[in-house]
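Long-time lurker. I teach an intro course on protein structure, and each term I like to show students one example going from raw sequence to a predicted 3D structure in token notation. This year I'd like something fresh instead of my usual example. Would anyone be willing to generate the tokens for the chain below so I can use it in lecture? Attribution to the forum is fine with me.
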Amino acid sequence: MTWNTTDCVFFAAPERLRAALVANGVLAQLDYLPQPEREIVPVTVTIAIDQDNQLAEVRDGQVHRAGEAGERIAAIAEQIHASVWAPTLQLALDFDTPSPPADERFGQTVTAVITPTPLSSLPLYAEAVHSDLYVLDLSDRRVIITRTNGEANHYGFYGWDEESLPALVLSHSNAERLAVLHTSESIATGAWHSWDLRREFIPDRTHMSPAVRAVADSLFSRRADAELFARYANCDVEPIEDILAAPPERGLPEFFQAMDLPPILADVLAARVDPATLPGVYHFRPGSLIQALSSTVRLYLREEYPPQARHALIRNLPRLYLNNRPLQLAVAAAELAGATWLGVRAKQRHSTWRAVTAVGLALDAIGNVVFAPALAKFIEDDHIRDGVNDPDGTH
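-- Reply from a regular --
Happy to contribute to a lecture. Here you go:
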């Protein structure tokens, strides 16, 4: 029998949900954030289903098919009067048990997105989402830091593109410390881990038979996530598995080290350090589209033309112009048009400066047509002579 997994999100008291799942023999994994002040919390229940959407049930020490998964999950939700959302099962039941508001549960959330996206793409992004972005340039990656209250709008929140992947998202709030790795443009995550999430298995692992434990280990293992994080960090899987299993006091610093991130970033995410005070940080503020466009152009030119390339481009501009006959003719035509217009205006208004400018433009146009090719030929012949006299280029 081949089993797969799918997720259902319950809004329920974890104890009541756990008891209902045990009573119905469901093989499942529960993930939720403990909130002692609240009875009803969001609980993600990962269940096992086969190719026909039949739910996996533990009975007599074995895993069996136990009816259509959507119907079984709906029945459990009705038993404990809990809302449930399971899109893959086309299931959405609402018993007026909403989760608490995000800003009340999480307070301020600090998010750092590590992405190869170019720096020049960020000023306009800050303007589009109307949010301050603090950016560290790590040469091969950018660290984009945002601070929000309530609904998130960090970089990538509205989608990913090929230029921004792979993207590692680190998010810290009062309730949760989370790492998410995105490897494709799909809304589904590549890998994720929360150091604050409570994880439980139904039935309890100590009460599983060897056969049930084998199925549970194959379905609910987090090794796949560890493998993706390790591939991103270009390291072995075993140290990452240990880091993900460790308590946050040890796991978080080691995770930052494994991902080759600046240690101070941990203090920024924990809100102990203001990102605006980081050395070399770029701060992109919303509010002025003209300023965002100006910053985008400036950063783009810096990316495309580093100092050596800029100097070479400036040195070669005269030669590039002299070797481009269509450009010379276009400039000459524009100058002649300008000279003609200024000449007419000078005659109408008896303007000496317009007349002098028109004559200058006309002479320059003639120079572009007549003298520019001759100068280009002279420079080319001079380079050829230099090459013959000094073939090794030592002088």
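Some talking points for your students: The two ends are 78 Å apart (CA to CA). Confidence is low (pLDDT under 50) at residues 387-395.
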